[in-house]
Amino acid sequence: MKKLIIFLLVITPCSLFAQIGIKAGVNFAQISKASEINSSTRSGFHAGIFLAPASKKIITSRTELLYSRQGYDYKSSTKTGNVDLDYFMQAQLVGINITRFVQLQFGAQTAILLNAKVDSTGGTGSAGANPYGKILDLYNRFDYGYALGAEIHPIMGLVIGARYNVSLNKVYKDIQSFQRPSFTSADAKNNVVMVSVGWRFGKTGREKKKNDNE
Q1: Which one, of 13, 3, 9, 75, lies nearest residue 40 by Cα?
Q2: What is the total count of domains within the chain?
Q3: CATH number for the domain that contains residue 135
Q4: Does a structural domain hold residue 2?
Q5: Residue 111 is part of which domain span?
Q6: 10 found inside a domain
Q7: Tell me: the pLDDT tens digits for 123-134?
Q8: How far apart (Å, rounded) are the C-alpha atoms in residues 212 and 156?
Q9: Residues sharing a CB contact under 8 Å with residue 91, sequence separation 6 or more, in sequence order
Q10: pLDDT tens-digit series, residues 46-84
């Protein structure tokens, strides 16, 4: 919490000179390098804000602060279930303005795990939530990786975008195999496709330049 407050204090003055927007959308989450379990895609959601300078240039930047729910569904010989992971994410992106309406994005992302939940159903059909004690102790609380995406600005402040987030850190801590619950995989990493819609407040630098020329 202390680190989060310090970070927000740092970016707040920057927001005075940036274009501010809000966004929300759906996640299609999965894990890679999970051969030990039969995992599949799980839907989630994200919501937050973004900050971007009112740049007149082709190359620009974007900072995003998001709450993101992701995870995966899994199935073993004895159990089926799902894992929900709630992250606070920061993405620092470079934007390339192809036109006034289309922007390509790439960059780095970091995330802090806020909460984890496991729901499972045994072979007899009984269900249970978090039957593994201190569930967060199994997870790496810090995640990092890279992101690739695109965004369109069809009209006024409307923003529609999609992004693929790839984590480079393992989801789980190093756990000895005989202590590892059935829903975990030693080398699992997060992969998330985000589809979002949002609204940017104010005009971009390129729009201001166009109006000035007129």
Answers
A1: 75
A2: 1
A3: 2.40.160.20
A4: no
A5: 20-213
A6: no
A7: 543 344 444 457
A8: 17
A9: 62, 63, 64, 66, 107, 108, 109, 147, 165
A10: 999 999 887 678 999 999 999 999 999 988 777 889 999
